[in-house]
UniProtKB/TrEMBL annotation:
Protein name: DUF4276 domain-containing protein
InterPro entries (UniProt xref): DUF4276
Superkingdom, natural source: Bacteria
One Pfam family matching this protein: DUF4276
Length: 225
């Protein structure tokens, strides 16, 4: 059994990993252990590089576990490695790669190359809610109002992938949901919608997310691990 810690930005991401992602990976003998970023008892958020360094160092200390991250680009502070440069980049892919490369370099400097061989950096573009637009019908079902399927579908149709729904303060994925469904509760409705959509549908629609999970699945191959 391979143990993989997932440092999560918040409680919704933690629940998503535990309820939607982990069961499928467990079938491949990969045990996901989601953890909120920061000290025990912390509610998540405020994703500073210093906190990630501390968490990754502690989680990788045993020498046999792996570690990855599950954060939103949108919620990263401007001081986060690569964030300021990413704002000047072109596509969402360029922005994500800019931050991931800078984070990898910062962690390698602190933890060393040996520990970093068991670290898989990942960044969600732009928000967790972007994944939910993989299936507008399931998203509407998650809110409990199936009439929202059509307007959610119109939003989805504007982008080649749900991962590219943008990060403006007014048009970020969560803001778009709230505009149509003001009582949107991220930990409740977000996870319900993800469960309705299912991991296969989300992976089919979200290339970067799928590539991240594929890399994790490859750990089950002794050569890859």
């Amino acid at each position: 059994m391979i143990r993989l810690y997932v440092i999560c930005e918040g409680q919704t991401e933690e629940s998503f990993i535990k309820e939607v992602v982990a069961p499928t990976l467990y079938e491949r003998q990969i045990y996901l252990c989601p953890r909120l970023v920061g000290k025990p008892g912390h509610q998540g958020g405020n994703v500073k590089i210093e906190r990630i360094v501390t968490d990754a160092r502690n989680l990788l200390a045993a020498g046999d576990a792996w570690c990855t991250t599950f954060f939103d680009f949108y919620g990263l502070p401007n001081a986060f490695p690569g964030k300021a440069q990413a704002q000047q980049s072109g596509s969402p892919d360029d922005k994500a790669d800019c931050v991931l490369n800078a984070m990898q370099a910062a962690l390698t400097l602190e933890l060393g190359e040996n520990a970093m061989r068991r670290f898989i950096p990942y960044l969600q573009m732009y928000e967790f809610e972007g994944l939910l637009f993989s299936d507008p019908v399931a998203l509407a079902q998650g809110t409990g109002d199936t009439r929202l399927a059509a307007p959610f579908q119109r939003i989805r149709a504007q982008f080649s992938t749900p991962e590219w729904i943008n990060d403006s303060p007014h048009t970020a994925p969560a803001k778009r949901i709230q505009a149509l469904f003001p009582s949107y509760d991220k930990p409740l409705h977000g996870v319900l919608a993800a469960r309705e959509a299912g991991l296969d549908r989300i992976r089919a629609e979200c290339r970067r997310f799928d590539a991240w999970l594929s890399r994790i699945e490859a750990l089950a191959d002794p050569v890859a691990a």
